[in-house]
Amino acid sequence: MAESKPSATRRQFFRDGLRGALLFGLGAVTTLFARHSQPKKLVWQIDPAKCVMCTNCATQCVLQPSAVKCVQIYPICGYCKLCTGYFEPQPNALNTGAENQLCPTGAIKRTALEDPYYDYTIDEPLCIGCAKCVKGCVLFGNGSFQLQVRHDRCVNCNECSIAVVCPGQAFKRVPADQPYLLKDRERQG
Ligand code: SF4
Ligand code: SF4
Ligand code: SF4
Questions:
Q1: What's the gap in Å between 121 CA and the centre of ligand 2?
Q2: pTM (2 decimals)?
Q3: CA of 94: how far to CAs of 25, 44, 76, 90, 110, in Å?
Q4: From the CA of 129, which ligand is nearest?
Q5: Which atom from ligand 3 is nearest to the alpha carbon of 68?
Q6: Tens digits of per-residue pLDDT, 59-85?
Q7: What spacing in Å lies between the alpha carbon of 97 and ligand 1's midpoint?
Q8: Collapsing DSSP states into helix, strand and coil, what is residue 124?
Q9: pLDDT value for 14
Q10: Phi, psi dihedral angles at 81 (to 5 degrees)
Q11: Ligand 3 atom with least separation from CA of 163
Q12: pLDDT of 95-144, one tens digit each?
């Protein structure tokens, strides 16, 4: 027996179903595309390989004190007794007297460990980002002091006023989920 032709209602039902499936598929593809094409949030950071340790980070930030701070990268610190990032070039004595310290705000704390090693920690609220210790550390030390834009302070200006005047072009936009830049030595572990 020959099959009867589909009724008008049945044809309409199939047509509506097909249209629904197409629209659903299109919606899923659009959502997927939108998710992947959303621009990543970017923040400012300093490339330590390019910083020439001028004083602009201390004076040119829209915030005072600056959003740029010195950080101690412990895995590459030598824990030196004569830390050239901590002491004046010609200290009276290797002790914590204010007159012997290079840091203008006393932001670096020196603590004796097992002889002859010393620990140097940065008191961030006191740091103004002047880069004096960073410059001192690379003279004879391992370069474990470096400047970083601290994201708990930085207001992420559209145009960073330090970046505009940075002589080393050290400021970069980096993804907010990877907001710090390391030196080659740190990357190599
Ligand atoms: S302005 Fe640039 S070169 Fe100067 S201390 Fe800051 S990051 Fe370094
Ligand atoms: S010398 Fe300058 S950059 Fe270093 S800890 Fe002191 S204030 Fe910060
Ligand atoms: S983006 Fe603005 S707040 Fe952040 S370091 Fe630059 S000038 Fe300072």
A1: 11
A2: 0.81
A3: 72, 37, 22, 10, 11
A4: 2
A5: 5
A6: 999 999 999 999 999 999 999 999 999
A7: 28
A8: helix
A9: 54
A10: -70, -45
A11: 6
A12: 999 999 999 999 999 999 999 999 999 999 999 999 999 999 999 889 99
CB distance 144 to 56 below 8 Å:
no
Distance 64 CA to ligand 3 centre (A): 10
Atom nearest to 171 CA in ligand 1: 7
Q: Which amino acid is at 60?
A: Q
> % helix / strand / coil in the chain, to the nearest 5?
30, 15, 50
Residues listed for the chain: 189
pLDDT given for residue 2 in this prediction: 45
- Evaluate whether 186 touches 75 at the Cβ level (below 8 Å): yes
Alpha-carbon distance 21 to 16, whole Å? 9
Residue 30's identity, in one-letter code, is T
- Ligand 3 touching residue 164 (CB < 6 A): no
Q: How confident is the model at residue 33 (pLDDT cuts 50, 70, 90)?
A: low
